[in-house]
Amino acid sequence: MEDQRKQQQQQQQQIDVRQSITIKGIIGLIMSYVDEGDKRKLISLGMGDPTVYTCFTTTQVAQEAVSDTLSSNKFNGYAPTTGLPQTRRAIADYLSRDLSYKLSEEDVFITSGCTGAIDIALSTLARPGANILLPRPGFPIYELCASFRNLQVRHFDLLPEKGWEVDLAAVEALADHNTVAVVVINPGNPCGNVYSYQHLKKIAETAKKLGVILVADEVYGHLAFRNNPFVPMGVFSSIVPVLTLGSLSKRWLVPGWRLGWFVINDPSGKFKDPKIIERLKRNFDVYGGPATFIQAAVPRILEQTDKAFYRRTMDALKLNSDRCFDGMNEIPCLTCPHKPDGSMAFMVKLNLSLLKDITDDIDFCFKLAKEESVVILPGVAVGMENWLRITFAVEPACLEEALRRIKSFYHRHANKQLPR
Q1: DSSP calls for 12-59
Q2: Residue 127: is its pLDDT beyond 80?
């Protein structure tokens, strides 16, 4: 009876995880299994929100800019649905620094976080019978938004043995006359990869060959701390139109401010059909954007943020990623195929043959939460069964403690019958 009960519980966990769709929903499920009697601190390596840790705080300029716009009483009313003009201009100028052409205010639209930008992009591209190509592993909000818009989803694999590069042959095989776009997430979430200039150019050339546009998710833009510098996909917009999605959330450590952007990188005007632009603007009429006073603070934030702030964030992320990578590889049942190059998370492969009573990645994460008060995202949540997504944007002391607990969990569940 006990074995049957456990089996039923595991089956229900799998159903619950697959129905939760969002990372927040799955993390919430896992946290509900944490033992309330465990007096140790709960440590989450599951969410990409570093602001819960004091070592990751935004710049003083950002705080003062928001405080000043709020106290000015000039920004208590509605903003235009596409965003404040000065905010759109400031983001256009900021993104143009890395391009060979200049974006205009009309190319930029303000959204409620990068999630809002994703939904706007997919709703604008959707049409009867259309499909979109998404990376696997990827960010599950894309699947959710696509389902709302009746967009068929087709997945292409990212290749761990090649630094999570896009399988371009798979992209070509999946695309047909109904394909509207290919999504590229760079720097990578959940893989922690940063693509080279050469690989990004090949992606752009493949999209041109297929006659589709690129959706470039750059919410982790500039968070690249190893050999490959961050190259925005807009660099290749002379080859193929690029819709760039981004936000203040990660680089400025303010995910709760919900300030995102949707940008059309299309200097040759291939995408800017008047009907498409009109449809885009109608979509913005439906959506609510970020608070007006937050929008009004953006120009000052982009212009006055000290480079030292960026360096401190990058140094902290690099240090944590090194320790997390090494620590995970010290646990026999875990393998990290690629050291993170950027962003705030990476993927770890789970070897179930080394564990005696763990059935899959979902079971691993639920039991880890219950026994060790450590929360990790199961890989199935991002499209990779029997992998784990690890977030390393945490306090170093919490990271060390989490690694100790995961190692203890492994020893408790290790398959002792295997030959040594």
Answers
A1: HHHHHHHHH-SHHHHHHHHHTTS-TT--SPPEE-S-S-GGGSTTS---
A2: yes
